[in-house]
Amino acid sequence: MRAVVKAVDRPASDAAIVRDAPMLAYDRGRRELMHAVAVDEVKTIRDQAEALRRYWAQRHDKEIEAACSAIRLRADYEIGVRSKALETEPGPGRGKRSPLGGDLSSGKEAVLREAGIAPQRAREFEKLTDIITEKDVDRLGCIAVAEAKVIDTWRSKAELKQAHRIRRKPSVA
Fold first, then answer.
1. pLDDT tens across 53-97, in order?
2. Is 34 part of any domain?
3. How confident is the model at residue 108 (pLDDT cuts 50, 70, 90)?
4. Number of domains the chain contains
5. Which of 80, 137, 148, 160 places its Cα 20 to 30 Å from the Cα of 107?
């Protein structure tokens, strides 16, 4: 996902950008999702966010990992909204076979399958839209990034205190 990479690939000397990289990554990912037109574009953004989340988990960067998780959650929500909006077009009849063989699928299922989304997974995303609203998704994303930042800061301070204690121990003579 270009959004996360652009936000992170900044010079380390620019402390403000580095400090705010997770929130910038989340905002850019959210904007990309808003500009995505088709379900397959949203699915691509979701897959990229998940891949980046796994990468940053391996690098032990909880802040960026949380931002990628928030982008993925937002993409899941968007897929559910767009899946609900697709009209089902049953064709000549359910269960009937086409003259060329094979089942006739609805327009909705065809679009989702073309995007690489299984019907069961689409139903799960649709249930997500019944459970929470778009504002809740935004809040969850911002909270996840902020919590990761607080936890990371707390760990850094604890590590510094520990290192300071080790350096200050008097030597036994």
1. 999 889 888 888 888 888 999 999 999 998 888 865 455 444 444
2. yes
3. confident
4. 1
5. 137
Q: Looking at the domain assignment, is residue 110 inside a domain? A: no
Domain that holds residue 163: 2-87+118-168
Per residue, the 3-state secondary structure of the chain, as one string, reads CHHHHHHHCCCCCCHHHHHCHHHHHHHHHHHHHHHCCCHHHHHHHHHHHHHHHHHHHHCCCHHHHHHHHHHHHHHHHHHHHHHHHCCCCCCCCCCCECCCCCECCCHHHHHHHHCCCCHHHHHHHHHHHHHCCHHHHHHHHHHHHHHHHHHHHHHHHHHHHHHHHHHHCCCCC
Whether residue 99 is contained in a domain is answered as no
Which is more confident, 104 or 82? 82
